[in-house]
Amino acid sequence: MQILPVQSGDIARLSALARDCFSETFGHLYPPSDLEAFLVKSYSAEALLADITDPSQYWRMVIDDAGHTAAYLHCGPVTLPFDEADGNRHGELKRIYVRASHQGLGLGKRLLETALNWMSRTYGDAPQWLGVWSGNDRAQAIYAGYGFEKVGEYKFAVGETLDDEFILRRLPG
């Protein structure tokens, strides 16, 4: 398994990977029209290209030994709706997804540690942030093991559906 930077030539693969991972993880929660609207808005090639060419964004994709996409990571300046979150000085782990076929191999942990290291290098000892679906107990337990604590809540739109999300913060150092 290799963790590689995402390049503009990887957009089609990243788009397919992101759509697949979100759908297999959360697709059952939404009406098909809401799911499709979200996938187009968040994971179309156009939306992703704008993000990966922004130097403030950090994208990595995992390629397995057979050359297939397995997982991805996205970090950048914090944009969570929380007063103490400073988009000029704090980083956010925006997405970690691992294909169901590749779960249980330690990829999520490797990507989380990669994200935390990037945020520490980029933002120093500033707070690190992430948003997580309120029903994702497994992810919340993993994040708690790395020192993240719940500090707030917000609504996350998937099409017309509004999910309850938790805002987590980690104080490194």
TrEMBL record:
Q: Name one GO molecular function term.
A: acyltransferase activity, transferring groups other than amino-acyl groups
Q: Ranges for the N-acetyltransferase domain?
A: 1-169
Keyword annotations from UniProtKB, A to Z: Acyltransferase, Transferase
| Organism superkingdom | Bacteria
Q: Which PROSITE patterns match?
A: GNAT
Kindly indicate whether the keyword Transferase belongs to this entry.
yes
The record's listing under Pfam families reads: Acetyltransf_1 (PF00583)
Q: Which PANTHER family match?
A: AMINOALKYLPHOSPHONATE N-ACETYLTRANSFERASE-RELATED (PTHR43877:SF2), AMINOALKYLPHOSPHONATE N-ACETYLTRANSFERASE-RELATED-RELATED (PTHR43877)
Identification of the protein by name:
Acetyltransferase GNAT family protein
